[in-house]
């Protein structure tokens, strides 16, 4: 049952005076709260940062093994699943001497480009990857000075990210 | 006038100008940070401690910009408008007393720049000039939005001046004088033994009407229709930039201060001491000579006047960030159909009461 509440308008309400006083009280209360109790909803951004969820999907990275070799085997699954079509992989063979695991990692990405301007940060690539190679970190500061820097190449993606950043 | 009088006058002018000009940056700062605090934000806090230098940075920015005049503008009036808008409220400030008097040697120095017997008329005359810069700026800019802002602004100010005048006349009947000093000394007594005999207690209705009217006169929210950012871009000062805009901006705050000073002088005891602080001064009455005590009293009065004006300015900011803007028909409805009749009835009631029982 919905309870219907009717507010009877008195003579004072017609001149909006009680409403005015209520409004002034609300702002004064908030003034006190922000100034003396520090209950501000905004923060001093570059110095203070908000704690985002562990599942936040930010800038991409490719995980590496202890020998700094990327885990990616250029299987093209991420490129296929990507709805924004922003991943471009060129596959190639890993030279014998650069492969510490013998046959284990013989295929490698010669180039691995992610166009961050197209990316919609859906995280499908992360889910599709069988090697847990491509991941999304928690870094959300992706602004660049030009379009070229917004296309991440393999060197940029292979940077060291602890945990999920 | 002797050399002493001239130098005293010059010092008083310097004092009033210094206080009112010096307070504008603090007000701008408080407007911005107070707004932030009321909206649960942090506000500008980068320039100087607590962001106190922010208004200075704003002024430097504005003054170092190119002073631009639109090609189709009427050059003379375009440049005249900000000048009038800055001068009028400062001139009105001259007639408002900010303390009783100092005794220096043989001389009695009244703490008021212009001792006028009909000071309130002088204040109103200069305050009434404030409608001209809005009209001139709106017309001379040759811009649709400016023109609309000017039309709104001038009709609003003329409409609310009527309610303001009637509320004021009812107070003049009670005080029986046009001299602001006499008004203050009338209010510097007690009413019924426990209240100060302030105008607000003698005639609260006139006080409320006057308050609403000065909000409209100074174009502050909820009556900032001449500027109306969301619909008129910036209203009458849309075509102004750089130093001329800074003058308009500055004038708005000086006008607020002048209006608060007048309001306080009429309704809140002017420079009369804040009730409950008199006993602190009386502690010194035996220690000091009568002349020195009068000087101390005058300084305390100046301090309490500035304090009262400060409270009023807080109220201005507080209201600005609480109330939304009126619609134009609502504004005219309030001015002509509510405030005007109420002020008239109030005036008649006050006149009848005074005729019956006297002041």
Fold and architecture overview:
The complex is a heterodimer of chains A (165) and B (359). Chain A has helices spanning 11-14, 17-36, 77-81, 124-128, 154-157, and strands at residues 60-62, 87-93, 107-115, 134-136, 151-152. In chain A, the strands form 2 sheets. A 3-stranded antiparallel beta sheet of chain A has the order 2-3-5. In chain A, strands 1-4 form a two-stranded antiparallel ribbon. With 165 residues, chain A is of the alpha+beta class. Chain B has one domain (3-357). A two-stranded antiparallel ribbon of chain B has the order 1-2. The two termini of chain B are 38 Å apart. The mean pLDDT of chain B is 84. Classes of the chains: A alpha+beta (165), B mainly alpha (359). At the A-B interface, helix 2 of A face helix 1 of B.
Helix content of chain B: 55-70%
Any idea how many domains of chain B?
1
What structural category arises from helix and sheet content of chain B? Answer: mainly alpha
- Mean pLDDT over the full residue set of chain B: 84
How much helix, percentage-wise, in residues of chain A? Answer: 10-25%
Q: Could you state the order of secondary-structure elements of chain A as H and E?
A: HHEHEEHEEH
Q: Determine the oligomeric state from the structure.
A: heterodimer
Number of H- or I-type helical stretches of chain A? 5
Number of strands of chain B: 4
Largest sheet of chain A: 3 strands, antiparallel
* Uncertain segments of chain B: none
Question: Mind telling me the C-alpha Rg of chain B?
Answer: 21 Å
What would you report as the Rg of chain A, rounded to the nearest angstrom? 27 Å
**Shape summary of chain A:** elongated
**Roughly how many Å apart are the termini of chain B?**
38 Å
Low-confidence regions of chain A = none
| Average of pLDDT of chain A | 84
CATH second-level architecture of the largest domain in chain A: 2-Layer Sandwich
């Amino acid at each position: 049952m919905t309870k219907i509440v009717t507010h009877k308008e008195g003579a004072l309400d017609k001149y909006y005076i009680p409403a005015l006083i209520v409004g002034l009280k609300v702002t004064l209360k908030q003034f006190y709260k922000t100034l003396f109790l520090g209950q501000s909803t905004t923060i001093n951004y570059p110095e203070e940062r908000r704690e985002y969820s562990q599942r936040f999907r930010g800038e991409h990275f490719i995980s590496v093994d202890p020998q700094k070799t990327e885990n990616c085997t250029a299987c093209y699954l991420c490129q296929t699943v990507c709805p924004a079509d922003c991943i471009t992989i060129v596959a190639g063979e890993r030279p014998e001497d650069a492969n510490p695991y013998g046959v284990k990692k013989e295929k490698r990405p010669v180039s691995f480009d992610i166009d961050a301007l197209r990316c919609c940060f859906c995280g499908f690539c992360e889910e599709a990857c069988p090697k847990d190679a491509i991941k999304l970190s928690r870094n959300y500061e992706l602004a660049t000075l030009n379009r070229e820097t917004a296309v991440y190449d393999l060197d940029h993606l292979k940077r060291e990210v602890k945990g999920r950043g | 006038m002797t050399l002493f009088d001239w130098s005293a006058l010059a010092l008083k002018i310097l004092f009033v100008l210094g206080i009112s000009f010096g307070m504008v940056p603090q007000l701008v700062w408080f407007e911005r940070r107070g707004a932030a605090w009321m909206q649960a934000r942090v506000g500008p806090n980068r320039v100087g401690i607590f962001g106190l230098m922010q208004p200075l940075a704003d002024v430097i920015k504005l003054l170092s910009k190119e002073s631009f005049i639109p090609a189709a503008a009427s050059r003379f009036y375009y440049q005249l408008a900000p000048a009038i808008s800055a001068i009028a409220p400062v001139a009105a400030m001259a007639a408002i007393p900010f303390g009783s008097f100092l005794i220096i040697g043989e001389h009695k120095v009244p703490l008021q720049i212009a001792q006028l017997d009909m000071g309130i008329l002088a204040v109103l005359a200069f305050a009434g000039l404030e409608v001209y810069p809005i009209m001139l700026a709106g017309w001379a800019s040759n811009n649709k939005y400016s023109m609309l802002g000017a039309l709104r602004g001038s009709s609003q100010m003329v409409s609310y001046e009527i309610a303001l005048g009637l509320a004021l006349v009812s107070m003049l009947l009670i005080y029986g004088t046009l001299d602001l000093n006499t008004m203050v000394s009338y209010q510097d007594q007690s009413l019924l033994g426990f209240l100060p005999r302030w105008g607000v207690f003698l005639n609260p209705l006139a006080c409320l009407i006057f308050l609403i009217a000065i909000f409209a006169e100074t174009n502050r929210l909820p009556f900032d229709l001449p500027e109306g950012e969301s619909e008129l871009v910036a209203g009458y000062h849309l075509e102004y930039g750089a130093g001329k805009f800074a003058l308009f901006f500055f004038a708005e705050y000086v006008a607020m201060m002048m209006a608060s000073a007048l309001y306080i002088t009429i309704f809140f005891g002017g420079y009369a001491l804040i009730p409950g602080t008199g006993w602190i001064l009386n502690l010194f009455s035996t220690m000091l000579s009568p002349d020195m005590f009068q000087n101390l009293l005058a300084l305390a009065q100046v301090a309490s006047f500035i304090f009262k004006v400060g409270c009023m300015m807080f109220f201005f900011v507080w209201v600005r960030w609480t109330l939304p803007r009126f619609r134009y028909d609502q504004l005219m409805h309030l001015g002509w159909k509510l405030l005007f009749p109420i002020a008239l009835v109030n005036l008649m009631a006050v006149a009848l009461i005074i005729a019956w029982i006297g002041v």
